[in-house]
Amino acid sequence: MIDKKLLDILACPICKSTLRYNKAQQELICRADRLAFPIRDDIPVMLEDEARELSSEEVDELYKK
Fold first, then answer.
1. Strand ranges, E, within the chain
2. What domains appear along the chain, each with residue ranges and CATH number?
3. Could you say which of 8, 36, 49, 58 is the most buried, measured as most Cβ atoms within 10 Å of its Cβ?
4. Residue 38 burial by CB count (10 A; 0-12/13-18/19+): exposed, middle or buried?
């Protein structure tokens, strides 16, 4: 579980927009760049090379919730 205070200060390293926490996948989602940054051992890995690309449909589905 990621700390709420940490979530409040984290931003996308590429575009600086806010991130959304996907608890089920243990990822932080950037809607603008359509990237999912992994969380490993409760530590966000905020590297572009480690992020996975999301389809528009995946992003839309995540933001419906």
1. 20-22, 27-30, 35-40, 43-44, 52-53
2. 4-64 (2.20.25.10)
3. 36
4. middle
